[in-house]
Structures are given as structure tokens and as C-alpha cells.
Automatic annotation (TrEMBL):
Domain (Reverse transcriptase RNase H-like) ranges: 399-504
Name of protein: Reverse transcriptase domain-containing protein
Reverse transcriptase domain ranges (all copies): 224-308
Gene3D superfamilies: 3.30.70.270, HIV Type 1 Reverse Transcriptase, subunit A, domain 1 (3.10.10.10)
């Protein structure tokens, strides 16, 4: 009976790889509940021994036979009580936690809420399939010991409406705990950063991942209550709990924990088995359960946290890319913010995303009317295309030098972190991550040299996790960045930047690269702006806004003022000589030599002109009247600034400035 059952399960799947072996357990359990966890695991291993041996030999650095592997795995199962760890009935964790409440609130929250009415938009989710599944979910949670039936005379402190949400064709019970969340003290315990966490997989040959079964429900609040999903402090409490259980393993760097997800990585087979045994043993000690459906044993690439990660590269999960393809243009602010948050999650894969998203963030402001103009639609499509075509990022190796390409433009700062790694026995330069941000209003006043220096300081701070203690090159097209470290008399903020950069002085080399070949980050400031239909800022000539002229302001200076100016020239030596030279187009060298040095130089350069008896001095950008009397200067300022028909402030206000 048992052999027939076993053959029926495995005849069609004997050639499947090692990553699928443990996934057969649920099928076996469903068809033959009497088979224990340990028995199932060993049957899978022994049944697929030939394929297993081939897989082990192709992956292992160390020689390992099938028998050695089976013995090692059997030892792990025995020592760690792995069957107990995978048991689903019931959840009886030894982990006790407490969520403090805010008792000083002026008004207590409404902790007893009715279920959603028929007029609620959430009531539409209650389909026949959902109603049937809701009963199954509740029965499963009761069986696991998460929920219990309340007696008719028992007082309940909190009641909340519940709906069933679907995710990956699986149902999840979701409660509306918003009112209860306002009654709790926020827990600010930090959650690991995704990008920094996954980079720990560098130079890893073996990866195993697992997820806790109903993770939050394994935290006991009181003898009669467990942590529900939807509490705002649940992730922080769970992360703190896991960090407390595995302090040594986390500090050694081979264990990655992000809330209820556990990843074990090793560079040798025997070490990987040993580490797996340590983790499972500690989970069994605290009576924590893991779900077998998400137990991935020794995989080459791992799908985690919306990414596909291996020991060499990091990419966006194909399901997320498919979701981007199916999205349409947002129709309101909520949909737009949802798209922007999604793209921001993958910002390390996207070049200059902050610059592209600037106009889209602008219409999400509460004071702004939502309107998708042609420019915003094209920005949205560009971000969408960048997500679909996002490149694979290299998993960085801190023992290899980095290359930091940096550049700025009038709208933002950007950088690309690269590294040269040996792939397929050939050196290849690839991207590690992209970063970008918009400039602040105060930074918009900086000149180009200051902006480039600001960009470098910001990038060093942002990429400190990678660059601290590593050798790297900074490639820039601005030579002022090279001079920043050696500046003798810097201003206040340049001095602060000098101090910040000196931390990396021993490991950092700044290289100047001409702008026309600086293409990694330089696209920010060298974007082609030809007025063509392909340009996002294209404006057809016939569609340019026509602004009606409703009035022209003219400052009228009295004729007497001009007469006084011409008369004053007779009392001034240089002006009198210039009048004679310009009026008669005289080339008398004696008159020219009689001019003062400054006046003579301007005359020889052809900067003086005579019009209606008034001498004008022409420069590159202006042409101004020449006055030689303080009294006349005050009169002209009064005419241009202090009269009721003048369009400027009074001359006294200008002098004060």
C-alpha cells in the first residue's frame, strides 16, 4: 500500500530538481495523513537518490555522496525535531509580548465596531467564493489555536469587522484595526533595509529560505489572546523577537531575517547543513512553526521581498513586472501615489527616477488639482518603461573596488555605483545600484561647482553602507570636485563638506572624466532638449500661449532734465572732450590724449555714443546715460523711481538696499 502510494506520487516527478523535493510533503500529507514529517522527508530523499546525487555533485564545492547527504539530513531532522517544527496543530508558542496602550488620550477610541454594511465598498468583496472560504479560514484558525469561540455570557473588549483578502490565490483574514491602532503607543524598532539585507548573499553557494506559519499569531499577548494581523506594532515586535532569538547568527552575517522571513546562506555544503540545523533547533526550542509551502531548500536563486536574488545578481520579480504592464494611467491622486510608492520601492534599479517623478509628485499635493497633462503622461510612461526594462544589479563584493559615477542637473542629483566582477571567467563592469533625488529650494541657488560637491557629499552619505572601508573611485565631469579636498579658504558649508569627505580620503580617488564620455550618470545634465515631438517638453509653435498686451508702461523724463545734462557736460572736462569728439566724429589725437586713462580706454574700445546731445556708455548687456553731476543723478532717480507713473521703488529704497 505504502509503496504503491509512493510510486503514484513520484513516477511523474522523478526528474524534478532538488528545490522541489520538499514541496511534495503537502501532497503526501493530504493523501496519507498517517505518514509523519520525518518519514515523508526521508522517503523523498531516498526515492530521488540518483537525481539528488547528481544535483549535489554539480553544486557542492566539497565532495559529497548521496549516502553522506542522507545521513547528514537525517541527523538534522533527529536533532532539531524538524517534524515538530513543521507541525501545524496547534500553534502553542513560548513567545510572550506586550503592546503598551496610550491611556492619556482625551477620547477613548471606539473598540467595538459593527461589520461592514451593504452600502460599504468592502461589502462588494463578499462574493459566494469568499463567504465559503471565510468559514474555512475561521475553522483553520480555531484549529490552530489562534481563534476561539466566545461564550454567550463572555465580555469581549474589542470587536472589529473582518473581510477575506485574496493573495496568490490564497485567502487571508483581514481585520479593520484602525481604531485600536490609535490606542497603542507606536514602536519604532527598525525593520531591516531590503537592499542592504539582500547584499549579504554575495559569494554564497547555498541558499535556504523559510517563512513562519501565521507569523504574528505565534506571539502570545495574554493566555487567551495572540497577536492579530493589522496591529501597527506587530512588525516591530516580531522583528525584535527574531533578533533576540538569533543574536549570534545575525552578527556572524550568514542569517538574514526580515520579520517572518528567514534566509540561510553558506559557501560550503557541510557548513550549510550545520547552520540549517542551528536555526531549526532554535526554532524548535521556542516552539515556533514554519510553513513547508515556503520552505526552499538549497536553491540557486531566491524569490524574496519582491526580488529575484542569487549570489551574483538582484532583479525585480517577474510577477511585479507583469503587474506594471497591466497598470493603466492613474485617474486620481490615490492611484498615482500607489504607483509612485511602487516605483520608489525599486528605485535602486531605476536611473534618474527622482527627476522623472518630479512632475508626478507635484499633482499629488492636497492643494493641487489632479490633471494628467501630456508631459505627466510621458513621465509616467517613462517610469513604467524603466521598471519593465530594469537591469539586473550585481550583488556587491566589498573586497573589490567600486566605481561611483556622479553628476547633477538643474532639477536633481544622481549617481550610479558600479563594480567590476569576474563573471564567466571574464571581467565585467555592472551596476550595483542607482540613487537620485530632487534638489531643495535652497540648493537651487548653488553654482555648478557647489552643486557637484553637494552631490558627492550626499552620495557618500547615502552609499555609506557599501563604501565605508572599501576602495572606490569617484568619476565626475566637474574638476571642482577634485579641488574640494585641497581648498584653502572654503566657506561654511564647503568646510562641512570637506570634513565629511575626509572620512573616505584614504580609500577614495577622484577622477575627472570629460562630459561627452561621462554617460553613466551624466545623462542628468546632458539631456537633449530639441523642440521635437519626441521631447517631453515639446510645445508646437502654433500652440504657444498667446498673452494679450493690456498696457505698456513708459517712464517719461522731463525735457528740462536732458537740457540740464547737456549743459553739465560743458563744466566737466572729460564729457566736454567726448562731446567734441563724438559730435564731429573728430579723430584729433591731442583731444583723445587729454582724456583720463579710464575714459580714454572706453573711447578707444568704441563704448561711447552721442544721441540728442546725451553721451551713452555701452557695455555688453546695457547702454546707460553718462552723468557728471550728483544733483542730476538724484533728479534722474526721482524721475524713474519716485514719480506716480514710474514702475519702481523710490531711489531712497534702492540706496538702502
Amino acid at each position: 500500500m505504502e509503496n504503491a502510494f509512493e510510486n503514484a506520487i513520484f513516477n511523474s516527478e522523478k526528474d524534478r530538481p532538488l528545490t522541489c523535493f520538499f514541496k511534495q510533503k503537502d501532497k503526501l500529507s493530504a493523501l496519507h495523513p498517517d505518514i509523519s514529517d520525518t518519514m515523508i522527508n526521508m522517503k523523498i530523499l531516498r526515492k530521488c537518490g540518483g537525481e539528488l546525487e547528481h544535483t549535489i555533485k554539480s553544486r557542492c564545492v566539497e565532495p559529497c555522496s548521496t549516502e553522506d547527504y542522507l545521513n547528514a539530513m537525517e541527523d538534522i531532522i533527529t536533532r532539531t525535531r524538524i517534524g515538530k517544527t513543521w507541525t501545524k496543530i496547534p500553534i502553542e508558542s513560548n513567545i510572550v509580548s506586550n503592546i503598551p496602550r496610550e491611556d492619556r488620550r482625551p477620547e477613548k477610541p471606539v473598540l467595538k465596531c459593527h461589520k461592514y454594511g451593504s452600502n460599504s465598498h468592502l461589502a462588494n468583496t463578499c462574493t459566494k467564493k469568499t463567504k465559503i472560504n471565510e468559514v474555512q479560514v475561521l475553522e483553520e484558525l480555531i484549529q490552530l489555536g489562534v481563534l476561539r469561540k466566545v461564550g454567550h455570557s463572555e465580555e469581549v473588549e474589542v470587536t472589529t469587522p473582518v473581510i477575506i483578502a485574496w493573495h496568490n490565490d490564497q485567502s487571508r483574514r483581514v481585520g479593520d484595526l484602525r481604531e485600536l491602532n490609535t490606542y497603542t503607543v507606536p514602536d519604532r524598532y527598525p525593520i531591516p533595509r531590503i537592499q542592504e539585507t539582500l547584499t549579504q548573499l554575495s559569494k554564497t553557494e547555498y541558499i535556504t529560505s523559510m517563512d513562519a506559519l501565521k507569523g504574528f499569531h505565534q506571539i502570545v499577548l495574554t493566555p487567551k489572546a495572540k497577536m492579530p494581523f493589522g496591529i501597527n506594532n506587530a512588525p516591530s515586535h516580531y522583528q525584535r523577537m527574531m533578533n533576540t532569538i538569533f543574536p549570534t547568527e545575525l552578527s556572524e552575517g550568514w542569517l538574514i531575517i526580515c520579520i517572518d522571513g528567514i534566509i540561510i546562506c553558506s559557501d560550503s555544503w557541510s557548513l550549510h547543513l550545520e547552520r540549517l540545523a542551528r536555526v531549526l533547533h532554535k526554532l524548535a526550542e521556542v516552539n515556533m512553526k514554519i510553513t513547508l509551502k515556503k520552505f526552499n531548500f538549497v536553491v540557486e536563486e531566491l524569490k524574496a521581498l519582491g526580488h529575484v536574488v542569487s549570489c551574483l545578481s538582484l532583479g525585480i520579480h517577474k510577477n511585479k513586472v507583469a503587474a506594471v504592464l497591466l497598470t493603466s494611467i492613474p485617474q486620481n491622486k490615490k492611484e498615482m501615489m500607489s504607483f509612485l510608492r511602487f516605483s520608489s520601492y525599486y528605485r535602486q534599479h531605476l536611473k534618474e527616477v527622482a527627476i522623472l517623478a518630479k512632475s508626478l509628485y507635484g499633482i499629488c499635493d492636497k492643494q493641487t488639482v489632479f490633471e494628467m497633462t501630456q508631459e505627466r503622461i510621458e513621465a509616467y510612461e517613462k517610469i513604467k518603461k524603466a521598471l519593465i526594462e530594469a537591469p539586473l544589479l550585481l550583488i556587491p563584493d566589498c573586497n573589490i573596488p567600486f566605481k561611483l559615477y556622479t553628476d547633477t542637473c538643474g532639477d536633481g542629483l544622481g549617481a550610479a555605483l558600479h563594480q567590476v566582477q569576474i563573471i564567466d571567467d571574464k571581467p565585467k563592469e555592472g551596476q550595483v545600484c542607482y540613487i537620485s533625488r530632487q534638489i531643495k529650494p535652497t540648493e537651487a541657488r548653488y553654482d555648478r561647482s557647489q552643486m557637484e560637491c553637494l552631490c558627492l557629499v550626499w552620495e557618500l552619505e547615502k552609499l555609506h553602507y557599501y563604501l565605508d572601508g572599501s576602495v572606490f573611485e569617484v568619476i565626475t565631469d566637474c574638476n571642482a570636485v577634485k579641488l574640494l579636498l585641497n581648498m584653502k579658504t572654503p566657506n561654511s558649508h564647503m568646510l562641512r563638506w570637506q570634513t565629511a569627505i575626509q572620512e573616505y580620503g584614504g580609500n577614495m580617488t577622484i577622477i575627472h572624466k570629460a562630459g561627452n564620455i561621462h554617460k553613466d550618470a551624466d545623462r542628468l545634465s546632458r539631456w537633449e532638449l530639441a523642440n521635437t515631438p519626441d521631447n517631453p517638453s515639446y510645445v508646437p509653435l502654433e500652440a504657444e500661449p498667446q498673452i494679450p498686451i493690456e498696457g505698456i508702461h513708459i517712464t517719461d523724463i522731463a525735457t528740462e532734465i536732458f537740457q540740464e545734462v547737456t549743459e553739465s557736460y560743458k563744466q566737466h572736462k572729460n564729457c566736454h572732450i567726448l562731446t567734441s569728439l563724438l559730435d564731429k566724429d573728430c579723430k584729433d589725437t591731442s583731444l583723445v590724449n587729454a582724456l583720463d586713462e579710464v575714459w580714454k580706454n572706453s573711447y578707444s574700445e568704441g563704448r561711447f555714443h552721442l544721441f540728442d546731445g546725451i553721451i551713452y556708455h555701452r557695455t555688453k548687456h546695457s547702454c546707460v546715460m553718462t552723468l557728471c553731476s550728483r544733483f542730476l543723478i538724484n533728479n534722474i532717480l526721482h524721475e524713474c523711481h519716485d514719480r506716480i507713473y514710474s514702475g519702481h521703488l523710490s531711489w531712497t529704497e534702492h540706496l538702502k538696499k
